[in-house]
Write a structure and sequence with these properties.
The protein is of the alpha/beta class. It has 8 helices and 5 strands, in the order βαβαβαβαβαααα. This is Response regulator.
Length: about 190
């Protein structure tokens, strides 16, 4: 369970999925946090200015101005705010960008409320071991990373990303909907 200090924190939950947003806010309230919800950039900034939350959970991809823009704006508004980026479309490129813009941590959905609360407490960046040069990434994983990088460069605009990639928008949407490829390590004999 979270520490007692969580009972004094106010968390801004920003996600365009209204049901998910309400469920997460309710879970955080049951864990002693005051929760405020918003479903887009403009509403999130208005709530942040009105309530001055000390924490925020921000969805990466939302219609209009996306989560990365919101992270940067929240950081300008309150440099001490702890911000966790939560997304169903995780990639190394978007995680790095989120951290550069001031996010405390980056989690992929589904994430448990306790996991999110623990992420707020992270004070040092996570050091990831680079893969050995002999362990090449599978091609579909490299493709996923590239798609995510282009999408990040286009601020989440799928049509613009598809144009830059030279592919049809629907093809890109299908690839994104499949999610990050997972590769199970081979079983040892």
């Amino acid at each position: 369970m979270p520490e007692a200090e969580d009972s004094h924190s106010t968390v801004l939950v920003v996600d365009d999925d209204k049901l998910f947003c309400a469920a997460l806010a309710g879970s955080l309230r049951r864990r002693g946090c005051a929760s405020i919800v918003a479903h887009n950039f403009e509403d999130a900034m208005a709530e942040a200015e009105a309530w001055a939350p000390d924490r925020a959970v921000v969805d990466l991809r939302m219609p209009g101005r996306g989560g990365l823009e919101l992270v940067a704006a929240l950081r300008r508004l309150d440099p001490t705010m702890a911000i966790v980026v939560l997304t169903g479309f995780g990639s190394i490129a978007s995680a790095i960008e989120a951290i550069k813009l001031g996010a405390t941590y980056y989690l992929t959905k589904p994430a448990e409320p306790d996991e999110i609360l623990r992420a707020f407490e992270r004070v040092e960046p996570t050091i990831v071991e680079p893969p050995s040069p002999h362990a090449a990434k599978p091609l579909d994983e490299l493709e996923w990373e590239h798609l995510q990088q282009v999408l990040t460069d286009c601020n989440g605009n799928v049509s613009e990303a598809a144009r830059r990639l030279g592919m049809h928008r629907r093809s890109l949407q299908r690839k994104l909907a499949r999610g990050r490829p997972s590769h199970e390590p081979p079983d040892a004999p």
